[in-house]
Amino acid sequence: xxxxxxxxxxxxxxxxxxxxxxxxxxxxxxxxxxxxxxxxxxxxxxxxxxxxxxxxxxxxxxxxxxxxxxxxxxxxxxxxxxxxxxxxxxxxxxxxxxxxxxxxxxxxxxxxxxxxxxxxxxxxxxxxxxxxxxxxxxxxxxxxxxxxxxxxxxxxxxxxxxxxxxxxxxxxxxxxxxxxxxx
Length: 183
Prior knowledge:
By secondary structure, the protein is of the alpha/beta class. It has one domain: Rossmann fold (3-Layer(aba) Sandwich), CATH 3.40.50. Helix content is about 45%, strand content about 15%. The chain has a five-stranded parallel sheet with strand order 2-3-1-4-5, with helices on both faces.
């Protein structure tokens, strides 16, 4: 892959229930990009400070192998290590898409997930027993997280969110939609 094949990292952030995973999967198929989910990396390591550090090191190694481009990164956007991406990459190297929703809607969506996807050790933190508590405690903090594209998903179905994101991305970075990369 050379610089003519450059496409930025698409960083999709949102609280549990906002639609990150759904959007990431659909975009990955459309743009033929791999997805790196922070939650998946965290689940590979022990619930310790060292386990968290190891998870981030493995993610950064994988992003480095990807040459810090041409992929989708899915996270909550609330981990301080994510700020490393903004510092490490040039401004055109990452596009942050923030999916927001009303707190009540997030709770409903979390409740509609399969039991195994509702929480447990998903955050590997004693501070948050489950996704409900995470949303309750961090809802206001998430509102302050900056992004290039912001979408309120409260009253939108996933296909509508997907179409909106594609339109906005095409305005910001048309190279994502170069015919040689899409079907």
